[in-house]
Amino acid sequence: MSDNNTQTSINISNEELSFPEFTVNGTQYSNFTLRCPSFSETAANFNMISKAGTPEGNKAAATLAKLCLSDLKNKSDFDAFPSPVAFTIIRKLGEKIV
């Protein structure tokens, strides 16, 4: 009888991200903690996966990133992040999902 149990390596731990310091709405940012989204958060923002690269997919990715960053003073600050920072965070978040 063969054992069909296989173990898959996944990373569900929080990830520390560091960027050169920047200011948004009077708040200085440089370090963030990115957590893995819950199943329900991912399902609610499924367009991030199903419509990746489209305006709908980008909006869903930003919404999910706002939920998973623990170091935002205001969730709306993410909308004013420098694009390289925002896209790096979204890419890292995508690596946690797929």
Please provide a written account of the structure.
The chain has 98 residues and is α+β, with helices and mostly antiparallel strands. It has one domain. It has four helices and two strands. The protein has a two-stranded antiparallel ribbon. A hairpin with a 2-residue loop joins strand 1 and strand 2. Helix 3 crosses helix 4. The longest helix is centred in the C-terminal third of the chain and has 15 residues. The chain is globular and about 55 Å long. The model has no long low-confidence stretch (mean pLDDT 87).
What's the N-to-C terminus distance?
32 Å
Domain count: the total is: 1
Helical content (DSSP H or I, runs of 4+): 25-40%
Count up the helices: 4
The secondary-structure class comes to alpha+beta
Structure characteristics:
98 residues; 4 helices; alpha+beta
Summarize the structure.
The protein has helices spanning 39-44, 47-50, 55-68, 83-97; strands spanning 15-24, 27-34. By secondary structure, the protein is α+β, with helices and mostly antiparallel strands. It has one domain.
